[in-house]
Write a structure and sequence with these properties.
about 260 residues, alpha+beta, Herpes Virus-1, two-stranded antiparallel sheet, elongated
Length: about 260
């Protein structure tokens, strides 16, 4: 069996919410369970991947949280406290979404319960408005689960949908699905608790569109006259390959289409 996180006490948790498992000697804990824990301070740089935690401090934090009850699931061991002054609600990180909590995935990694969470400007959605990502209906106004683009105020989407898109697009490609605003959109999403990893888009990692970056290199004339075959593409002369100016997916030799030199 996989080891359980010492802070949220779950062996299986959504990696988009809790992050990867970190192993410190005999202790296992999710990265963001560590960063959001109220009684735990990281060491090292301010970069997520470079932050370090001492095993004894992680164990001490877990012991302090042992009697603390999560207001969402009702179980003990809640290590995260609402940042609102005077609020003593505590919860586990995997319980945050279910409890309507907001966790901001940027320094200083602050958390808020359902009562004190930041909220978007209250707007009413037009009738029959659908999420631009999943195309299912959204609620009739801005809520925890229904969000709107702060720039154009016309793009509506579910929190879960924009979170999924943020994980694929990353900070370098995420933008409003309608008006394509970037700066204001990213700032608002981070403020509202959407995790946006600082990396390039996932479709760039696996070369999903690699073929689109390759220039077409064959003659598509009905009858190719080149002695070397359709694959010849010289820089000049009768066997220079010209591509369609519209799609660049079809080409022909100069001679094969009786094209002049001009």
């Amino acid at each position: 069996m996989e080891p359980a996180c010492m802070l949220c006490r779950r062996a299986e948790a959504d990696p988009d919410i809790c992050g990867p498992e970190m192993i410190y000697e005999w202790i296992c804990a999710h990265l963001f369970c560590l960063l959001f824990a109220s009684d735990l301070c990281p060491r090292g740089t301010k970069q997520e991947k470079d932050m370090e935690f001492l095993p004894m401090e992680i164990q001490r934090t877990a012991q302090l949280a042992a009697p603390m009850v999560c207001f969402v699931c009702g179980k003990r061991g809640a290590t995260i406290t609402c940042q609102e002054m005077g609020c003593n609600r505590r919860f586990h990180l995997p319980c945050a979404v279910e409890g309507g909590c907001v966790t901001r995935y940027l320094l200083p990694f602050s958390s808020f319960c359902w009562e004190h969470r930041p909220q978007q400007q209250e707007l009413v959605a037009p009738e029959d408005t659908k999420c631009l990502i999943c195309m299912d209906p959204v609620e009739g106004r801005t809520t925890y689960g229904t969000m709107v683009c702060p720039a154009c105020k016309h793009a509506w989407f579910h929190r879960a949908c924009i979170q999924g898109q943020a994980m694929h697009a990353g900070a370098f490609c995420l933008q409003c699905p309608l008006c394509q605003n970037t700066k204001l959109f990213l700032t608002e999403m981070l403020f509202m608790g959407i995790r946006i990893p600082v990396r390039q888009a996932s479709w760039e990692d696996n070369n999903a569109y690699a073929e689109l970056y390759q220039r077409h290199r064959s003659c598509d004339a009905r009858e190719c006259l080149c002695p070397g075959g359709r694959g010849v593409a010289e820089p000049d002369g009768p066997w220079q390959l010209f591509l369609c100016r519209s799609c660049a997916a079809v080409g022909t030799h100069r001679c094969c289409s009786n094209l002049g030199k001009s």
